[in-house]
Amino acid sequence: MQITKLHFVLLLLACFGLHTDATQLLMLSPIGDARNEGRKAPEGSERAVTRDIANALAHEMLRNYPEIRVLFTHMAGETITQLDKAQYANTTGTSLYLVIGCYNAPQTHITLLTAQRDNHMIMKMSDQALYPISQAWRLAPSYEYGQKLTLALNRGAAHKHMPPSVLYEAPLKDLRAIAVPAIVIDIGLSTREHVPFVAQVLAEAIGTMLGDLQ
Amino acid sequence: MNSKLIIVSSLAACAGVCLYLYYSEYFIVLLPQHTQIIAESKAHQTRRTPVFFVRNKTWSQEIKDVLWTHNEPVVEHLLQQLLDVLYEEKYIQQRVRVEFAVRNASGSTLYIQLSQSPLDQGSIAANIEIVHSILSTLAHNNVQVTGVQFLVNSEPLPDTHLDFSSPWQLAAISNT
Predict the structure, then answer these.
(1) Fewest C-beta atoms under 10 Å: which of A20, A133, A157, B149?
(2) What are phi and psi of B107, to 5 degrees?
(3) Which among B123, B125, B163 has CB closest to A171?
(4) In chain A, whose CA is at the least distance from the CA of B127?
(5) CB contact under 8 A, B125 and A101
């Protein structure tokens, strides 16, 4: 009887342990799809370069932070709407949703953007309320995540090679309806050869930030 | 007695014809408006006014002559001066004209129609800085609105990344 009780307690603890040992989920959404090639980027379009950066970032994350799972919103050659991306992110328990964009710039640098917080307009809502998709950002601390990621980027070795990153707030179409922490990473690239370096810098900052949050 | 009646009825008929012609707009009465024009010219005055924009991640300002009325700048004139500065400083690639700026019924939202988009297809941050320059210039010059809706051809300003479907809040510039 005692052994049965002990087994029951151990089983309960094991279940509890499995439940709390949640792997963090990073969702990457490179700008551009089969229909939209995006802005001009070094030696190609934004669509091609952001895919390279996202692949390199996923590879770095897998190598250095195996406890963090990485998912893509869409594969190369696919087309997906913003609302589909949002539904995908909101229903899979995503820890951090990252949109990756890039454009031609004289010097390689990283800018971070989060959804606009219009604090003066916030009304007290009851626990159960319907938010319009333009206000989905209210359900996640994206700005705080943005601040932490900016700090992590500027604290790391990156600042020796790149100008410090700055965090902006704005109403962004790329984050519309996303109800999990979400950040746009807009990368100014001077040459495509900097892609591995940028991916390494980003992976280090994201890994540090998610590790600190856990 | 008969002659009196004839005169009164003739005058009444004439007055009726005149009123009919007036209401049918066969003739229009314009009253002298000298007094009103003088009053308006006194209400308008040119003031040295700062316009704000972001230069190398920090706020800069230039002083321009802007028309003011009733202790508030004429918004079209103020924004045109700012857009001209942004064009001269090469923050925007083409000269943009302010077509009109009107408020909604409550006066809280300002609708600004531009001849074309001042934003380009480069950095999202640079485009945000252009919009924030407009918001900051309005906020610092006593334009009493809470939000600004940007329009081109009576439609929300088109942009791939920034969302102009709703008014941008003036309070947003304090967050940058």
Answers:
(1) A20
(2) 80, 5
(3) B163
(4) A170
(5) no
Q: At A198, list the tokens.
A: 């940028």
The tens digit of pLDDT for each residue in B126-151 reads 999 999 999 999 999 989 899 999 99
| A46 close to B (CB below 8 A) | no
A69, A125 in Cβ contact below 8 A? no
Q: Which chain A residue has its CA at the smallest distance from B121's CA?
A: A39
Is the ipTM higher than 0.85? The answer is no
pLDDT tens per residue, range B47-97: 999 999 988 888 999 999 999 988 889 999 999 999 999 999 999 999 999
Q: Is A69 in a helix, a strand, or coil?
A: strand
What residue of B is the nearest CA neighbor of A174? B161
Residue among B159, B165, B163, B59 at smallest CA distance from A116: B163
**Measured between CB atoms, which of A104, A117, A186 is closest to B175?**
A117
A113 touches chain B (CB under 8 A): yes
The pTM score is 0.79
Output phi, psi for A175, to 5 deg.
-115, 10
